[in-house]
Amino acid sequence: MFRRTIVARIGPFSLFMKESKGLAALQGLSVPQRGAKLGELYRSLSKAEAAALKDRAAAIPSAPRRARKPRIPAARPPSPYNLFVKKNMPLYEGRVADRMKVIAELWKTQQNKKKK
């Protein structure tokens, strides 16, 4: 299927916000008040100023695409207990829970023998 690619370009209002960050009219205002004031200033621009702002915003290139690293699943090596269970599981019959109990006891006895 087709993939939709979203190109994140900067718009004229975003460019206006960046350029008017240090205006004296915006100093000391809270965030909501600053947003309202910026909206008023943007709407009060003349057609020529708005067109120039739109052209400058279109001239700014979009952010470069980041190359994705291929995902490599973290595969741990099996522990000695895992290998022991895998080797001994076919030797016993019955429910898995019962077989695991027998294999766990066998593992404990082997570990105790190794410690001594």
From TrEMBL:
Q: What is this protein called?
A: Kinetoplast DNA-associated protein, putative
User: Region labeled Disordered — which residues?
Assistant: 55-79
Q: What SUPFAM superfamilies does the entry give?
A: HMG-box
* Organism annotation: Bodo saltans
Q: Which Gene3D superfamilies match?
A: High mobility group box domain (1.10.30.10)
Transmembrane ranges, per UniProt, are: none
